[in-house]
Design brief:
single chain; alpha+beta; Arc Repressor Mutant, subunit A; 3 domains; ten-stranded mixed β-sheet; three-stranded antiparallel β-sheet; 15 helices; elongated
């Protein structure tokens, strides 16, 4: 038995206005039903006008995936009744989508995988149902927000692969600046189709609708994979149905029998002319493309000398990669910048913005490299700076965390430690070289971590007459 999975992924495009009207597309925090007009509500006589910016963002994705952009594509009406679809139909592309083909490479457990794309098309989003204790309410603000739908070939072989494919796609979308792809806000969501192939024969597929987190995608597919395998092992038959996923209960919920295309009564949208993408337009979009994530990862390895693993972690989020490069410019040391960002900053980075400015971190790294402050004390200052919003070097100065640079003072401390620890001195002279580490530790304690351990070690060796 072999698992076969394909995804239908919906991505909200980051445009200022909706796909076919001038209403704001920034609906998430707006009061319900305040961002609507006759066009997105489907009032009689209202005519849609295509958003050029939405097309250009969609073209970026098509080019990044290596898809073939069709010179002429066409919009269709997909007819169905749902409470949050006031027109009674959705404007989408079926017969002539914007782009065909393409693929996305990604890694699963350090193994490279490729999933092919069947097609990508433009469409409008529906409204949103809000379920409360008093019943369901409808918010039409999302009606008409531009979407692209990316349909993959059935190339995915496990629920984990599906999760990692979506992660890679989200990274690409964010680097392209076409979508924030926030799954919690519904800006990236998918429907998953899964079947079990037996003896090379494709099995009957089932669908799981509206999965809106990586965890939900993996858990829902794993549950359905287990159900189908158990059913087939008992000699049963898989029926073509659609499930929902109850994340709280961790179970599949049967919704309906699978619809076919004819159930939606598709026909060409009479109010929109065909979309023509000229070669000149497509070339301009390609010239304006941002750096792709895999190009950036290769550059980080090549220019900054990072490992592939570290570069991969940094480019997962464009804001993280941007921040890293700002820190490099501030401190001039790519390796140290990567170490601090990965080991210290990421654990504090909870929201959209970094916990501390790149310039401030760069100055702190420079102070450590120049010997003005120990790494331990720098971490302490950084932690306080993140909590208080202050500059870490101000905290270093205020709390006296900078390293002691006076040679005579360091020698005085070392002589005190030698006088106070005759047993360690005796051990050292007896050949136990590790005793020097104990003496350095005692001196560091006296100076509250403000001494340079290497300088102290040298001074102790001089005092004890060792080479």
């Amino acid at each position: 038995m072999r698992t076969v999975i394909g995804l239908e992924i919906h991505v909200q495009l980051k445009t200022r206005t909706k796909l076919f009207c001038g209403c704001s597309a920034d609906y998430f925090a707006a009061p319900p039903n305040t961002l609507t007009c006759p066009v997105c509500l489907g009032m009689p006589g209202a005519l849609p006008v295509l958003n050029r910016r939405a097309v250009e963002l969609a073209l970026r994705v098509a080019l990044a995936l290596g898809a073939r952009v069709q010179e002429i594509s066409r919009f269709d009406r997909k007819n169905y009744f749902y409470p949050d679809l006031p027109k009674g139909y959705q404007i989408t592309q079926r017969e002539f989508p914007l782009a065909l083909g393409g693929a996305l490479r990604f890694r699963v457990d350090d193994e490279e995988r490729t999933v092919r794309v069947r097609e990508m098309h433009l469409e409008e989003d529906a409204g949103k149902l809000i379920h409360t204790d008093d019943g369901a309410r409808v918010d039409m603000n999302r009606c008409g927000v531009p979407l692209i739908e990316i349909v993959t070939e059935p190339d995915i072989r496990s629920p984990k692969e599906a999760r990692e494919f979506l992660r890679a796609l989200r990274t690409l979308l964010r680097h392209l600046r076409v979508s924030d792809a926030d799954m919690e806000k519904g800006e990236l969501r998918c429907d998953a189709n899964i079947s079990i192939s037996v003896d090379g024969t494709m099995g009957t597929k089932t669908e799981i609708k509206n999965l809106n987190s990586f965890r939900a995608v993996e858990r829902a597919l794993a549950a359905e994979e287990e159900r189908q395998r158990a059913l087939l092992s008992r000699g049963g038959t898989v029926e073509q149905v659609t499930f929902g996923w109850d994340e709280h209960a961790g179970r599949l919920v049967l919704q309906r029998a699978k619809e076919e295309a004819h159930d939606y009564r598709y026909f060409p949208e009479p109010d929109l002319v065909p979309l023509v993408v000229t070669r000149e337009w497509l070339e301009r979009v390609e010239r304006e493309m941002p750096e792709l994530p895999w190009e950036r990862e290769e550059r980080f390895v090549r220019e900054y000398g990072l490992s592939g693993k570290d570069a991969g972690i940094l480019i997962e989020e464009p804001a993280r990669a941007d921040y890293y490069e700002e820190v490099v410019r501030a401190c001039g040391d790519p390796g140290e910048a990567a170490g601090w960002v990965l080991s210290e900053i990421l654990s504090y980075w909870k929201g959209e913005s970094p916990p501390i400015g790149a310039e401030a971190l760069g100055r702190l790294i420079t102070a450590v490299r120049s010997g003005k402050i120990s790494r331990t004390n720098a971490k302490e200052a950084l932690e306080e700076a993140i909590a208080s919003g202050r500059d870490p070097l101000e905290i270093v100065e205020e709390r006296g965390l900078s390293l002691l640079s006076d040679e005579e003072e360091l020698r005085r401390v070392a002589e005190e430690v030698v006088a106070e620890n005759p047993k360690a001195v005796e051990d050292f002279r007896a050949g136990k070289k590790q005793a020097i580490g104990f003496l350095v530790g005692q001196a560091m304690r006296k100076t509250k971590g403000r001494a340079d351990a290497k300088r102290l070690s040298r001074i102790f060796l001089e005092i004890l007459g060792a080479n």
